[in-house]
UniProtKB/TrEMBL annotation, chain A:
This is Cation:proton antiporter. GO terms for cellular component: plasma membrane. It is found in: Cell membrane. InterPro entries: CPA3_antiporter_subunitC, NUOK/Mnh_C1-like. It is a multi-pass membrane protein. Gene3D superfamilies: 1.10.287.3510. It comes from the Bacteria. Belongs to the CPA3 antiporters (TC 2.A.63) subunit C family.
TrEMBL record, chain B:
This is DUF4040 domain-containing protein. It holds the Pfam family MbhD. The keyword Membrane applies. It comes from Mesotoga infera. It is a multi-pass membrane protein. It comes from the Bacteria. It is found in: Cell membrane.
Length: 116, 80, 252
């Protein structure tokens, strides 16, 4: 069930990327799609009745069934890289808006070229 | 457990659609932050505590702060 | 018109994925059903076996000495020990993005002023809370091999403490020291990798002795690397926040 919802989030993010004109809304749609993809990758590693992959002193470790730790390591990397990409994209948007005074992609793509 | 994750999933998709169609940018950013927090609950249900702590501190904390600070700079550039 | 076409494309994508998720194909092209994963067919079975069973016999928490990685958190042993090269790549990507933000937005002397005037109660309270936040961040990355967390959320919590200080107070700036700290920690990570190459023959190998599983000073090189990563990510994200707050750099 979580897999369907995460793919719905990716589809909503895709719709936002295709139809919005404001640059900041494009970055927000990209973040929505990223949340969906991270949820989907963690859901691939889930084992029914498994425990979280940490050894502790209160449980009997040899007879437990653990969930898959490898997709979790992958998603850890992916979340941090998402933050880095968002920060760089937002700083580019601020810099563009200072020099062209608009953050609308139709105005940026058609009215350019005369400030050279 | 399955009903709980169904409700959270429906609320997350609703917030996402609302975030894209909102008129003001501030509303969209706050909806994105709420979506990050709800995804932390889903990560805990799927028994992934490392990912939950990372998404809570990085996604819901720092991404929202960076969005709000850049919205402030955009308003300043607009008003000049 | 544009919205209808993009909504149709998004729906088409969603239906393609739902068809792939529902397919009953027994060969490995389909995605396995949620929760019914046979772990014995995956590489992760080897990783879990090494963490739970060790080389010959069982690993008991607090008893076993000299296991292969020695960390109680399996995700940490994958991120820092078995796939440590990917973590080096991730640290590089964060460094590139922080450098980009610094190039585009930094260098300003002034600060954007706050909209509301902050009362002295808030200022004093935040001066008390922000060091507590930084101590929490240091705890999270120092115990990365025993409890969930690790270097990346620890650094993010340190950056959140820094953000609290900078938003409330009008004078505190620290941009140069942060950039120096970040660069030094990145170099230190590569040097530890080269030291592993010189001592044991492979880059980023675990060359310190792994002690008793479950103590703070155990698991060889893992707490050292996570402390380096935690300080680096904390300094980086604080530098990004600092660049977004400053204003008045040279106009392009």
């Amino acid at each position: 069930m979580i897999q369907y919802f995460s793919m719905m989030l990716v589809a909503v993010g895709l719709y936002g990327l295709l139809s919005q004109k404001n640059l900041v809304k494009l970055i927000i749609s990209l973040n929505i799609a990223e949340i969906g993809v991270n949820l989907f990758i963690v859901s691939i590693g889930y084992v029914e009745g498994g425990a979280a992959p940490i050894l502790s002193s209160v449980s009997d470790n040899s007879s437990l069934l653990f969930v898959d730790p490898l997709p979790q390591a992958l998603v850890l990397t992916s979340i941090v890289i998402g933050v880095g990409v968002t920060a760089l994209a937002l700083s580019l948007i601020v810099s563009v808006s200072k020099s062209r005074n608009t953050i609308d992609i139709t105005e940026l793509s058609s009215g350019g070229g005369d400030s050279e | 457990m399955s009903v709980f994750s169904f409700i959270i999933g429906v609320v997350m998709v609703g917030l996402a659609i609302f975030a894209i169609e909102a008129k003001k940018l501030l509303t969209s950013v706050i909806m994105l932050s709420a979506m990050s927090l709800l995804s932390v609950i889903l990560f805990v249900i799927m028994k992934a505590p490392d990912v939950a702590i990372t998404e809570a501190s990085v996604g819901a904390g720092l991404t929202t702060a960076i969005f709000l600070l850049s919205l402030r700079k955009l308003k300043r550039a607009d008003a000049e | 018109m544009k919205r209808i076409i993009s909504a149709l494309i998004a729906l088409l994508f969603f239906f393609m994925i739902v068809t792939a998720l529902n397919s009953d194909s027994s060969d490995s092209m389909g995605i396995p059903r949620y929760g019914e994963v046979k772990l014995s067919e995956r590489v992760s079975a080897k990783y879990i076996e090494k963490s739970v069973n060790g080389n010959e016999d069982e690993i008991n928490f607090g008893v076993t000495v000299d296991a292969e990685t020695g960390s109680a958190n399996m995700v940490t042993s994958i991120v820092v020990n078995y796939r440590s090269f990917d973590t080096l790549g991730e640290v590089t990507v964060l460094f590139i993005s922080a450098t980009g933000v610094g190039l585009l937005l930094g260098g300003g002397r002034k600060r954007i002023g706050s909209v509301i005037s902050v009362s002295p109660v808030v200022k004093t309270a935040s001066r008390v809370i922000a060091p507590l936040l930084m101590v929490l961040g240091i705890y999270v990355f120092a115990h990365g091999h025993l409890t969930p967390g690790g270097g990346f959320p620890g650094g993010a919590i340190i950056a959140a403490g820094f953000l609290l200080l900078v938003v409330v107070d009008d004078e505190k700036r620290a941009s140069k020291g942060l950039k120096i700290l970040e660069g030094t920690m990145g170099l230190l990570y590569v040097f530890i990798g080269i030291a592993g190459l010189l001592i044991s023959g492979s880059f980023l190998s675990n060359f310190l002795p792994t002690g008793v599983v479950g103590e703070l000073f155990s698991a060889g090189i893992i707490p050292v690397v996570y402390s380096i990563i935690g300080l680096k990510v904390g300094a980086e994200l604080s530098g990004i926040v600092d660049d977004f707050i400053s204003e008045g750099g040279d106009e392009v």
